Amino acid sequence: MLTNQAPAAGFDANAPFSALYERAADERSDLVTEVRTAVECGMCDPRDSMEMACAAAETAKAVVTALSGPWALYTPQDAATVASALFVQLQHTADALAELRRALGHIAERGETQLPAPAGPGQQTNLGDALATLRSVSEQIHGLTARHASTTVRALHAAPASAPRPTDVHETVVAVAALLAEQHDQGVTLNQSHEDGEFEDPDDGFGCGCDVTVLTAEEEYSFHRGDSEWSLIRESDGRKLSDGSVVYDTFETLSTTWKIAHPQQLVDDILRIIANDASQDSTGGLRAIPPIAPLH
After folding, report:
1. CA-based torsion, 105, 54, 50, 24: positive or negative
2. What are residue 176's phi and psi, to 5 degrees?
3. Rounded to 5 degrees, what angle do the CA atoms 193, 270, 258 make?
4. What 8-state DSSP symbol labels residue 46?
5. Diameter over CA atoms, the chain
6. Is the dihedral of CA 126, 131, 136, 138 positive or negative?
7. What is the pLDDT of residues 239-253, one digit of tens each?
8. Cα separation of 139 and 290, whole Å?
9. Residue in 212, 205, 290, 209 with CA at minimum distance from that of residue 250
């Protein structure tokens, strides 16, 4: 079993806390690229300001959803990268509130709104109060990030980590087979199509040709990767063609598509499917039919 026993490298004491965010954004995110492209194309009217602010709000909400699952993060170093990005987001939010205040000032300078003095006791909050609040909140957010961002990100990054860390799709398959052999009480076989060290990952979404056979009293399963997905097929779902080959019109897609996913996450999915099948078989229930797709 491949195991990472130490924090990831590449974040020294002199690096700013934002370095983890910057590296991850440059290396992994198509979504970030889309936003950067929009900025490069130019934003020059209220539609752009409102649309980008709404997109930022939706993105922040999506982060909450992404972090809500039990496999949202694999290591404290993953958490450090997320924290780095969230603290940068807070800084940008503070800057945006300050720019919003200045943009309102430009409206007043054009004579297109009145900028009154702050409201007195018992009076309704007005534009002057709103501008003061925008400045105050911006300054408070900047103060919080200045005090806490660096120490928090560094503490997360320095925390010990021992999660299995495959480096390619083949190592993921091998690690899954090893865990299944430990956690499944019936036959588990790693079927290798190449010698160790002879696989070069083309990064085309397909596997290395290796798969894992998992036996139960009622069924034979095959775990494999194809078409940028991890899948589990049941041998009983096979359909024999006239040329003697077998195709599978149904299969179970696992919860993550990442080629170097945490092996235990994949094992949990596999064992859950097997347990569900066994439960349905014992009660005579019908299995849910997943989307039809060819086996790759």
Report:
1. positive
2. -65, -45
3. 65
4. H
5. 87
6. positive
7. 888 887 888 888 999
8. 52
9. 290
| Phi, psi at 207, each rounded to 5° | -85, -165
pTM of the predicted protein model: 0.86
Contact 2, 171 (CB under 8 A): yes
Distance CA 253, CA 228 (A): 10
Alpha-carbon gap, residue 291 to 267, rounded angstroms: 21
In the beta sheet, which residues pair with residue 189?
A: 213
Residue 294: helix, strand or coil by DSSP?
A: coil
247, β-bridge pairs: 239
Structure tokens at 8: 């990831």
Instruction: Write down the residue that tokens 């503490």 correspond to.
Output: 155
CB 207 within 8 A of CB 222: no
Evaluate whether 77 touches 156 at the Cβ level (below 8 Å).
Answer: yes
> Phi and psi dihedrals of 265, rounded to 5?
-60, -45
Structure confidence by residue, pLDDT tens digits, 42-68 = 999 999 999 999 999 999 999 999 999
Q: Which residue has the tokens 């939010």?
A: 93
